[in-house]
Amino acid sequence: MTKQSCVAFIYCPGVAPGGEPSFLLVSSRKHPGKWMLSKGGIKPGEDAKAAAEREANEEGGYKIGSGACKGHLMTLMDPDGTQSYAVQCLEVSSREGALDDETERVWREKDTRQRKWVDGWAALEAAVGGGQRREKIWGEMVAAAKTKI
């Protein structure tokens, strides 16, 4: 059976040099020193949008407001066929705007993760290591995002 997962592609448009977007990344718990987009399983009765918003909050401590979801970017299949990823584009108006004291206080994974913003597409591609197994799907996701964001 294929596990259904989501990816929260969180970005803030036009704030990086040259008008490019910035992207919110979280540190990997399994692979110290690696950075990634927030991702996780879709719970029973939850749609991919709600799952992406939940993961952004749980992993990145970022509260996503209404209207932030700009839609489904694509669905990717893990190379071994055991997991699918519904990639959701989540736009925020400010890199600091949703990081309030209350969100910080209830950030579930603040003791096991870090977060950072990277500026521009090249920085995103350089910062995130998909690992050999997922390198192809990472490249597909970034290429698709460049056409939508």
Number of helices: 4
* Global mean pLDDT: 83
In what range is the share of β-strand residues? 25-35%
The general outline is: globular
- CA radius of gyration is 14 Å
Unreliable stretches (pLDDT < 50, length at least 5) are none
Short description:
The protein has 149 residues and is an alpha+beta fold.
Output the keywords:
149 residues; alpha+beta; 7-stranded mixed sheet; 4 helices; 7 strands; globular
Helices and strands, with pairings:
Layout: E1 3-12, E2 22-27, E3 35-36, E4 38-41, H1 48-60, E5 69-77, E6 83-91, H2 101-106, E7 115-119, H3 121-127, H4 131-148
Parallel strand pairs: 1-6
Antiparallel strand pairs: 1-2, 1-4, 2-3, 2-7, 5-6
Write up what this structure looks like.
The structure is a single chain. The protein is of the alpha+beta class and 149 residues long. Helices cover 30% and strands 30% of the residues. It has 4 helices and 7 strands. Strands 1, 2, 3, 4, 5, 6 and 7 form a 7-stranded mixed sheet that branches. A hairpin with a 5-residue loop joins β5 (69-77) and β6. The model has no long low-confidence stretch (mean pLDDT 83).
